[in-house]
What we know:
Four copies of one chain form a homotetramer. By secondary structure, chain A is an alpha+beta fold.
Amino acid sequence: MPGSxxxxxxxxxxxxxxxxxxxxxxxxxxxxxxxxxxxxxxAALDRRRxxxxxxxxxxxxGDRAEYLSGIFEGRTLGTPIAVIVRNTDARPSDYDELRTxxxxxxxDRSTVLKHGFRDxxxxxxxxxxxxxxxxxxxxxxxxxxxxxxxxxAWIESLGPFxxxxxxxxxxxxxxxxxxxxxxxxxxxxxASGESVGALIACTIDQPPTGLGEPVFHKLKSDLARAVxxxxxxTAFEYGLGHGFGAEHGSAVTQTESNFGGIExxxxxxxxxxxxxxxxxxxxxGEKAKAGRHDPCIAPRVLPVIEAMALLVLADHLLRQAAxxxxxxxxxxx
Amino acid sequence: MPGSxxxxxxxxxxxxxxxxxxxxxxxxxxxxxxxxxxxxxxAALDRRRxxxxxxxxxxxxGDRAEYLSGIFEGRTLGTPIAVIVRNTDARPSDYDELRTxxxxxxxDRSTVLKHGFRDxxxxxxxxxxxxxxxxxxxxxxxxxxxxxxxxxAWIESLGPFxxxxxxxxxxxxxxxxxxxxxxxxxxxxxASGESVGALIACTIDQPPTGLGEPVFHKLKSDLARAVxxxxxxTAFEYGLGHGFGAEHGSAVTQTESNFGGIExxxxxxxxxxxxxxxxxxxxxGEKAKAGRHDPCIAPRVLPVIEAMALLVLADHLLRQAAxxxxxxxxxxx
Amino acid sequence: MPGSxxxxxxxxxxxxxxxxxxxxxxxxxxxxxxxxxxxxxxAALDRRRxxxxxxxxxxxxGDRAEYLSGIFEGRTLGTPIAVIVRNTDARPSDYDELRTxxxxxxxDRSTVLKHGFRDxxxxxxxxxxxxxxxxxxxxxxxxxxxxxxxxxAWIESLGPFxxxxxxxxxxxxxxxxxxxxxxxxxxxxxASGESVGALIACTIDQPPTGLGEPVFHKLKSDLARAVxxxxxxTAFEYGLGHGFGAEHGSAVTQTESNFGGIExxxxxxxxxxxxxxxxxxxxxGEKAKAGRHDPCIAPRVLPVIEAMALLVLADHLLRQAAxxxxxxxxxxx
Amino acid sequence: MPGSxxxxxxxxxxxxxxxxxxxxxxxxxxxxxxxxxxxxxxAALDRRRxxxxxxxxxxxxGDRAEYLSGIFEGRTLGTPIAVIVRNTDARPSDYDELRTxxxxxxxDRSTVLKHGFRDxxxxxxxxxxxxxxxxxxxxxxxxxxxxxxxxxAWIESLGPFxxxxxxxxxxxxxxxxxxxxxxxxxxxxxASGESVGALIACTIDQPPTGLGEPVFHKLKSDLARAVxxxxxxTAFEYGLGHGFGAEHGSAVTQTESNFGGIExxxxxxxxxxxxxxxxxxxxxGEKAKAGRHDPCIAPRVLPVIEAMALLVLADHLLRQAAxxxxxxxxxxx
Lengths: 333, 333, 333, 333
C-alpha cells in the first residue's frame, strides 16, 4: 500500500505538498447517513493552524475546508468524502537557498536518497502542513464513534511546566498552567532562536469494547503506528508505559488501570491512556529567529494526535461491527 | 486486513493457538532464487524457546520447523513459504480452572468481550507462543536484506542490572553482565512468585537507504507498530526517544545520530537505534511459583524484536526496490 | 499484496506446490462461534478430487484435510483457520524431462520469465492442485452466509452435450444428460489423446442484498476476478452477458432478470447468474494418452467455481455487515 | 479496502458524485522523476467527454483537469498526484422526479438496499461520470510503462457494423467503418428512443514480460476485474475466450496466440488480446429521446477500457520491478 493511505475499513488518503496548490484528504469507507457539519470540521482545522497562537509560526493560513464529494443534505453518502484546503500563503522565494541545502532533522536529504528528486521549496509531504489531511480524517472518524467516547490530548510537560491532573486544559493545551506564562516562555525561546520538546498525554474515555485484534493489529500497536507517524514524535507508550520497565509484577497487577484499558491488544471499555514525546524543532539559531517556525510544536500537534487516535478507533470499530453482527457479544461479560 | 497478517510487499501470515495442533507461518512475496537453510531457521527458533534458560518456563517444546512449501533445491521459489511447528507439550488439564476465570493482564476477558467465545485452555493467539510465527518470518526477511545489514537487540536494563556499551551480549541477552548473576536473580524471583520488566535496545547497522514513506508509513512508525505488536511491549522510542521530551533544539541538532538513522521517516543509511519496554509478566504469587511462567520475558523476546525489525526492513526494501528500478538513486547523494 | 491471498475482510491465503510436501489454506477474518464440521469440509474436497470419475486423471490423491488451528469444540475461534492436505502421490520421476521443456499453455515458460527459477517437476503453484486451497476457503465462506443462500454451478455445454434447464445435476455436473454418455465420450477423447473445453453456468439463489461497492469493487467485477483466477477459465459473463452485445435497450429492460441480480454493481437479492468458459487442456496427443490428464476439466472445476463465488459473497457480506450496523437498511425498500 | 481504490503498488483512489462539486483522482505509488504533461492528460479526458460526438448526450462538460499535488517542474515527486475536474453543467432540477423513482438497470434501487440513503439527483458514484477518475489514473499509469507498450481498444461490432482487422480506427472507435454511417445509425436510435450494446476488443502490444502472479492475481483475472468494474460491461474474455468453450485441445495448441499473451496467468511478452461486452443503456423510450443519454456508450467507454488495462499493467510492473531487482530474469529464457 502506497504511503499516503491509512486504515483498512475506514481509509484516509491524503495528498498535497506544503508549497503546491492544495492539501487534501479522501475518506473512504464511511457508512451512509451519518450527519456531518462543515463548520465543525472547520473548527477542528482551526485548532491546528499556525498563527493561532502568538508565539507560533508567522505563516497565516486561511485553511478553509472546501468539500468536494461524499456529503449530501448534511449527511454522508457512503461514498468517498473529499475535502481540500488551498495553500494560500506559500512564499516559494523564502526557500530558494534550500535548492542545494539539506536541513538537519528534516526529510531533505532522505527524500533525495529515496527518490533522487524533490521539491526543494519546503518539506513537501514531510512538512507539518500534511497534518491538515489527518485532522480532516479525524473529524469524520469521530462522527462514527459513539458520542460518549471522548479523545483528549494535552501537554503533560513543556520546558519548566508540568500539567496538573484534572485541571482545565488551557489555550496552549496544558492543564492548570497559566497560558500567559507559557506564552512568555515560548516568546523568549523564539527570541533566542531556541526550541524545546514536550511530553504529550492522551486519554480515550468510554472506548467501545472489543477493538483490536490479537496478533499484529493489537489496538496498542495500531495506536503506536498512528501516533509515531506524526512528524516530530519520537516515543510512544501506553498504560504504565516506560514505567513498566523497572517494575515488579506484584506491583503492576494490583491496579487494573495500569494496563491502559487494553488487554491482549483488545480494548476492555476502560479508559485508555497513552503518551508520546515530540522532539524540539531542529530549526534553531538565526534561522529560527527570522523564519516562521514554532519554538515548540506540541500545542499544534494535540489535535493531530487526537485525530490519529480517532482514526484508529473508527477503523477498528467498523471491523468489530462486522464481527458483532455474526456473533453478538454478551451484554454482561 | 484481518489481524494475523503483517506487511504489504513481503507479507507474513501466522496461525495457531497455543493449545491447538500446531503453530505456523506463511511468508508470501519473497522473490525467487534466494538461498535458504532450514537449519538456520531452526537455530533462530531455538533462540526463542522456553526451557532453554534454566529460570524460564518449564514447558519444553521441541519447536521443530517443518517446511511445507515455497522452497526447492535450497532456494525460494517465489511462491508462499509455509512452515509449521507442532505443539507437542500442551497439557490442557493444567488449564481447566481457566474456563471461567480471567487472568489480569491477559487477553482472557477482552477476547470474550470481542468474540463472545474463546479457547480457555491458554492464551490462544494471545499466547507468547504465537511469536514462533514471527521468528519464522524474520528468518526469511533477513535472507532478503543485504548481508552487511545487521539487526541486534539486547537487554539494556533488567532489575538491578545495566548493560555496558560495546560489551559482548551474554546468554541472557545483556551486555557485560555476568550470566550467572542474572540467572540467580531470576531464580530468586521465580522462587518468590515475583516477576520483573525490562528495557530492550536494538540497533540496525548498515540499513539500506531510502526505506520508509513520508506520511503514514514512515520507517519509525512501521517499526513502532511492529515492536508494539509484541505482547508484553508497552513503550517504543527511537533515536533520543523519550530523552527528546525535555531537550532543547540547540542540543539535539549538534549530533546527527540523535535522529536515530531516520530523517523525515526515511532511512539515511546511518545506524538506526530504537528501544522498547517489556512489562513484568502478570502471573505472580503462588501460580507463578508452581506453573511454567517466566519471571522476565525479555531474554526470550529479543529474537522476536529482531524478527519484527527485519520484517519491516525487508517489506520496505521490496517497495524501494521497485522505485529504484524507475528512478535510480544517485550514487553519491 | 502478494499473489496467494484473496479477499479483504475474509482473507484466504493458500500455499503449496503440486510436488512439494503439502497444499494448505489459511482463512483469516472469520467471526468466532460459527459451527464447522471437518467431515463437511472433507466432502467438499472429495468433489474436486481427480480419480473420482473414471475418465479423469489417474492420479489418486487421498486429499485428507488436516486441521491445524482456528477451531475449538466444533466452532470457529475468530482466529486464522489453517488446514493442510498432504501430497501423497507425487511421482517426481514422471517429470524429469520437463526440467528443460516448456509445455504450451502452461506456466512453465512464463514462470521462468517472471522468476528465472522454477520447480520443473510440475506446475508448482500453477498446477490445478492449488485449487485444494480454494475449496477449503469456500467451505468456510459458505458457513458465514445465510443458510438460504445457495451457490450452484453446472456444465451448460460440453462437446456435443447441452444441459436441460431445471433438470437434475448428474455425476459429471451436467443437467439432464446421461452420465454414461458423457463418460463414454470422455473416455473416447482420452483414448485418442484429445481434449475439449466447456461452458459453465452458476446461480446464486437468495443472495444477501446490498453486496458490492459502486466503483472498483462491484460484485460483478469481484466475481469476474475470482472466477477468471481459476487456471483454465478464459471468459466470464453475468446476466445476459455476451448476449447484451448485440441487443437493443428496449428488449433488455423488459425483464429484470437480464441484469443478473446485480444493479450498479450491488446485489438486489434476486437470483444472480453468471457463466464462464474453460478451455480444453493443452496436453494432447501421445502424452495425453499416457499421462494422468483430464480430457475435460469442467467436472472438477465446478466446486472450485462455487468456492470462488462463496468467497466473494462472504467477503462482501462482512463489509456490508459493518455498514448495516451503522445504517440499518430499510426493511421494505 | 473501501470500494473507490484500485491497485496495490500503484493505487488509484477516485471520488466525486455526478451532481456534486467535483470529480477527482489520487494516484499514489508513482516513482519520482517521471515526466508528465497536463495537456496530454487533458487530451485523454477529452476522449471520454460526452458531447464530443454529435449523437451522444447533450451534456457539455468542460472537464478541465486541475492539478493539486504530486507534480513539480513537469515531473512526478513520488508523492500522491491529485487531479480534480469540476462538475460545471449539473442541472439537479432535471432529476427531481427521481427522488422516489428507481430506474431499471441503474444503481438507484440497489444503493438504497445497501445504504438506506442516496443522492437521488443522479447516479452518484454509479454514474458514468466516475470514469473521469479512471482516465486520469490511466494517464499516469501509461507514463510508467515502457514507451513501446501500447494499449488500443476499439469497437469490434455495434448494431449492424463490424470492424475490419488492421483498418484505421475512426472517430467512433470502429475500424474500417465509415463514421458518417455510424453517426446516422446512432442518431436514428436516439430519435426513436432506442439504445444498443456493442462488442469491444483491446490489444496490448509489447507488454512487459513476467507480469501477473500464479494464483489469485493472474494478469487475466486482474484485467477481468478491472474491465468488469466499468459500469456497463457484462462480459470479459481473453485470447480465444468464449471460443475456447466449444474447442478441442488439438486445435487450440497449434497457435500460441490463442493463449492471448498470458500463460499460467503471467505475461509472455507476446501481444495480449482481450474483449468485453457493453450492454445497451437502459434508458429508452420518451426519456431517452428527451434527456442527455447516449444510444450506445461504447465510443465513450474505449478510453476507459484502455485506462483500466494501463492501471493493471503499471501496478503489476511495479511489483515485478521489485522482484527483478533481487533475481534478474535471464535475458534469453
